[in-house]
Amino acid sequence: MNIEYCPPAITHVKPLEGRTVELRYETGLIGKVDLAPLIASGPIWSRVRSDDDFFRKVQIDAFGSLCWPDESDIAPEHLYGAITAPAAVSA
Predict the structure, then answer these.
(1) For the domain that residue 40 is a member of, what is the CATH number?
(2) Residue 87: which pLDDT band, with cuts at 50, 70 and 90?
(3) How confident is the model over 46-76, as pLDDT tens digits?
(4) CA distance 67 to 29
(5) I need a surface site. Which of 2, 31, 59, 89 has the fewest CB within 10 A?
(6) Could you give the CA distance from residue 13 to residue 41 in angstroms, rounded to a whole number?
(7) 3-class DSSP state of 49
């Protein structure tokens, strides 16, 4: 039996300083994720990395991924893991 993990849906994304976003989930969880490590390399990310105005155009697509107008996207399971991982929890 193969069961795929499906994180809670992202209901709101807010771009912050640098390449950080604040995410709100359907469960009420709110967290911040620094996307810089995820977009550090590769030509698809060049505009997201270098253009502040373009970065702020981030949206949530129909699949729950963060996306930009050039069709670059980040899957929701990567983002949820970054928020809920033990290293992300602060005392």
Answers:
(1) 3.30.2020.10
(2) low
(3) 999 999 999 999 999 999 999 999 999 999 9
(4) 20
(5) 2
(6) 22
(7) helix
Cα 33 to chain center, whole Å?
Answer: 7
Of the chain, the percentage scoring pLDDT greater than 70 comes to 88
Task: List helix spans (H) across 1-91.
Answer: 46-50, 52-55, 76-84
* 3 belongs to a structural domain: no
* 6 bridge partner residues: none
Output the six-digit token pair for 89: 């929890």
Both structure tokens of 36? 């810089």
Q: Which two tokens stand for residue 66?
A: 């963060």
Whole-prediction pTM value? 0.85
Range of the domain at 58: 10-88
State the residue for tokens 């209901």: 11
CA neighbor of 52 nearest in space, from 22, 17, 14, 79: 17
